[in-house]
Design goal:
The protein is α/β, with parallel strands linked by helices and 309 residues long. It has a domain of 207 residues: 3-Layer(aba) Sandwich (Rossmann fold), CATH 3.40.50. It has ten helices and eleven strands. The strands form three sheets. It has a six-stranded parallel sheet with strand order 2-1-3-4-5-9, sandwiched between helices. Strands 6-8-10 form a three-stranded mixed sheet. Strand 4, helix 5 and strand 5 form a beta-alpha-beta unit. Helix 6 packs parallel to helix 8. The longest helix is centred in the N-terminal third of the chain and has 21 residues. The N and C termini lie far apart (43 Å). It binds NADP nicotinamide-adenine-dinucleotide phosphate. The site of NADP nicotinamide-adenine-dinucleotide phosphate has 24 residues, from helix 1 and strand 6.
Amino acid sequence: MKNIKIFLAGHKGLVGSAILRRLREKKYTNIILADKKKLNLLDQKKVFNFLKRKKPKIVIIAAAKVGGIYHNSTRGADFIYENLQIQNNLIHGSYKNNIKRLIFLGSSCIYPKNSKQPIKEEYLLSGKLEETNLPYATAKIAGIKMCEAYNKQYKTNYICLMPANTFGPNDNYNLLNSHFFPALIKKAHQCKVKNKKMIEVWGTGKPFRELIFVDDIADACIFFMNKKIKESLINIGSGKDMRIKDYAKFLIKKLKLNVKIKFKKSKPDGVFRKVLDVSKAKKYGWKAKISLDRGFELTYKDFLKKNIT
Ligand SMILES: NC(=O)c1ccc[n+]([C@@H]2O[C@H](COP(=O)([O-])OP(=O)(O)OC[C@H]3O[C@@H](n4cnc5c(N)ncnc54)[C@H](OP(=O)(O)O)[C@@H]3O)[C@@H](O)[C@H]2O)c1
């Protein structure tokens, strides 16, 4: 089955590039790739024709409009339009082309903001969402419900994985639209090279965040793409979280910095806590394997190699 035809959408992104590495490590030989220049996934006609021509058996959707709290709260229209369009085109296009297996990615940030902890899959849509990423969450929830509806009506096997905050090689370090951890890595690195005495952390530093190394997400995608399961939604996390200020302390220690933390309290905190209940994934035999320490080492090596300033 290693020659099964797989279309991996979004292979140049953080998660997509890790899935591609993992597929190659696992010796999958028939992977179809098309970047945005070759195939803009917003274009329905082109996506449908592409799937008709290429005839993959599996589609993995790692393409999406993704960003941190700043862009999410200021570019809501782009987030809802582009995500709905990309996932509609790929999910419906897969159904129309008789593709039975598909992996769609949600995100832990789309659960209700006051969810009980740890968050179980069934808490989705059980309460009010976080305001700062409402358009993104609305689109992602629509994608999950779409997969569920297609599974029920058309007997497809479209699985939605719900990853925790992800980090790893190939991350986005642009401070305006990056997630909190790559932003902290960049700030910590700047403190090191510029010998700064202060590292700035957005918000109060008190919210908790769960991190998962991207190779674990890639591993989960391949594990579940080969499974026939009853549920359409599976949480994928490390199951461990800590406060944002503790991640800052972790980086200060790793980079041996002599700095104080300054909390920029005018910036939003986002959801207070969102640690995932990963018991369903474990029940199927999957769990995260890479520690924060090891994940950080691999990520920082890539950061230094790319000479990011
Ligand atoms: N990063 C996280 O912390 C995290 C956490 C949980 C879930 N996820 C989920 O994982 C998935 C991937 O996220 P990521 O962090 O890997 O994002 P990313 O690094 O921004 O990668 C997204 C990829 O999608 C491509 N793309 C976007 N719009 C496209 C279009 N119109 N046509 C073709 N390609 C397009 C991008 O190409 P260009 O670069 O050329 O635009 C990029 O290669 C998303 O569904 C996200 O919700 C991510």
